[in-house]
Amino acid sequence: MDVLSEGEVLATFDKLVSEGSIIYQPYETISEDCEGYPLEFRICPSLAKKPHTVGTKLDSSFDKSQKWGPGSDMFCTDERLKVAKLNNSHDLALNLFCVDRPQFVVLTLDSYRRQHEPLDLDDFKAALEMVTSLSDMYLIFNCSEEAGCSRVHKHMQGLRGPPTAFEAFVGGDRERSAIPFQYFVHHFAQGFGKAEAKELLGVYEDLLRQTRGVLGKTVTDVCPHNVILWRDWIIVVPRRRAAVGSASANAAGMLGSIWVPDRSGVDEWLRLGGRSILKELGVPALENGNAR
């Protein structure tokens, strides 16, 4: 993929926002410390129009938008959303509902691929193209509805880094002990720029095998999990559910960046307790230390 000009991308993004083809507004940020685990709540009024669960219909203002392929449940409101092709297997596009300026989505060109499927070699080839071509973007994948996805067309997302709680995952024992749920992590010493997609796939498949063990899933079961790629690290988080009441999180949320449409969403998290919610969404951390 050709290296993109951030200025050109932002100019297109701002133009599409002004025309209503991208839903984005400035957001308010509230930070909380959950016994050493940092949470950043983003209050994004624009998310009120976003479908939050699989099967939810899009806002009626998008009724005439074309789908992103015959098997897709995602919408392309404007051809200018499409930024590039990745690996000849994925579209890199500007996201329709954004919490970052800009925010990307990486969709399979095969619009019948589904979000409950694990990542494969083509996914990792596309992911590496994105994270090595775009500055300071991290990649997330929400595998299945229980892991926080709201659309079933297989896709990943690109967000501005760093993930809020990332340092806890790569720090010492004290930092890692603050993480309330189990996870698996691997560092690529050669860096993403020199790593091959097949290497990432091999590591991911091993972490996914461990994730299945934690969740009691077989290789034929859907295995809910989140994936995060950032600064030469891969993190995999086993998931048990998407939400506790109205408090929900995707991959970014499990790493501390929680998106809500209004203040009531923050209040619900604080009422139930951030650590308690994260333990229910994931798998509670082991007493003798997190899975590694």
TrEMBL record:
<dbReference type="InterPro" id="IPR036265">
    <property type="entry name" value="HIT-like_sf"/>
</dbReference>
<dbReference type="GO" id="GO:0003877">
    <property type="term" value="F:ATP:ADP adenylyltransferase activity"/>
</dbReference>
<dbReference type="Pfam" id="PF19327">
    <property type="entry name" value="Ap4A_phos_N"/>
</dbReference>
<protein>
    <submittedName>
        <fullName>Uncharacterized protein</fullName>
    </submittedName>
</protein>
<dbReference type="InterPro" id="IPR009163">
    <property type="entry name" value="Ap4A_phos1/2"/>
</dbReference>
<dbReference type="InterPro" id="IPR043171">
    <property type="entry name" value="Ap4A_phos1/2-like"/>
</dbReference>
<dbReference type="InterPro" id="IPR019200">
    <property type="entry name" value="ATP_adenylylTrfase_C"/>
</dbReference>
<dbReference type="InterPro" id="IPR045759">
    <property type="entry name" value="Ap4A_phos1/2_N"/>
</dbReference>
<dbReference type="GO" id="GO:0005524">
    <property type="term" value="F:ATP binding"/>
</dbReference>
<feature type="domain" description="ATP adenylyltransferase C-terminal">
    <location>
        <begin position="178"/>
        <end position="284"/>
    </location>
</feature>
<dbReference type="Pfam" id="PF09830">
    <property type="entry name" value="ATP_transf"/>
</dbReference>
<feature type="domain" description="Ap4A phosphorylase 1/2 N-terminal">
    <location>
        <begin position="36"/>
        <end position="158"/>
    </location>
</feature>
<dbReference type="GO" id="GO:0009117">
    <property type="term" value="P:nucleotide metabolic process"/>
</dbReference>
